[in-house]
Amino acid sequence: MQYSTIRVSDLKQFRHVQKLAYDCVEYTAASLRTGMTERNACSIMKTWLKEKGVSDLFHDPFAWFGDRAAFKGFWADHKFLPSDRILEDGMTGILDIAPIVNGYSADIGYCFVHGRNPSMQATLDDMNRLLLRARDEILAGVRAGRTFRAIYREVDDMIADAGYVNQHKRYPHRVLGHRVGRHMSNPLNRVRWLGFGLPTYLSLMTRQWASKVTPGIVHSPLWNDRRESNHRPFAGLWAIEPHISLRDQSIGTKWEEILVITEDGAWWLDNDTPHCRLGTQRGWWHESSQSAAQVFLEESSDFLVVG
């Protein structure tokens, strides 16, 4: 993965891929039928993307239904892979997809309720309201120059104070987020490991372990609450994915989207995302900061954003 200079023309491409990914999961959620499995959901996502001309993925599609969306029983990394869990009427689910188009990648997450379940929807609404507050706090923390580790812990405190449980700690290396960038075509990416192309996985893990050994010298591509993230935010594009559950892990929810960090500022790539639209429609959330797409819209395509 390349984290080189990013120009306005690149931002437009990343935004395009992110929107494509959201369109994919919204289509998939609407297409799911009671009795389908997580594997069926992932097949729908892959087929939809293939029909749109997408042939490469940063990671394979993930789908988690019911308490699996809260990572209940996830004692090893292979548990993240799609299973034969059956979707029931009124059940919650999470879809996570990461397409690559012309080398540009995005990684998004989307939560939904299948069918009609007012009680479940009300609970999920309360949880998603908190996650939109976390979205604002993450941006404020980056803009204030607080360390990645400090921001992570502040988000954890917010989650705990609201009576929920942080589940992003269950992701490999406890990530709240990770870098995204441009990908070079590599036939070895056909070899998959835990849902990732082998070269991509090895590149991420090599830098991650190097950052643990030499923090401050090698920057980690992952954002967690450990010493390798005890540094001020550095420029680049980051896929942020706060993930929470009820205490009993019966329900889980998340969103995931790209955060743009420059030498002198930070913006979410786009405020026109499903979770932001829902928050606006329900009156939970109001746009208080422009997106990177809005800020740089009038600049020339060659204008340097990062680098």
From TrEMBL:
Pfam families: Peptidase_M24. Residues 13-207 form the Peptidase M24 domain. Keywords: Aminopeptidase, Hydrolase, Protease. It comes from Paraburkholderia guartelaensis. This is Aminopeptidase P family protein. GO terms for molecular function: aminopeptidase activity. The keyword Hydrolase applies. InterPro entries: Creatinase/aminopeptidase-like, Pept_M24, Peptidase_M24B. It comes from the Bacteria.
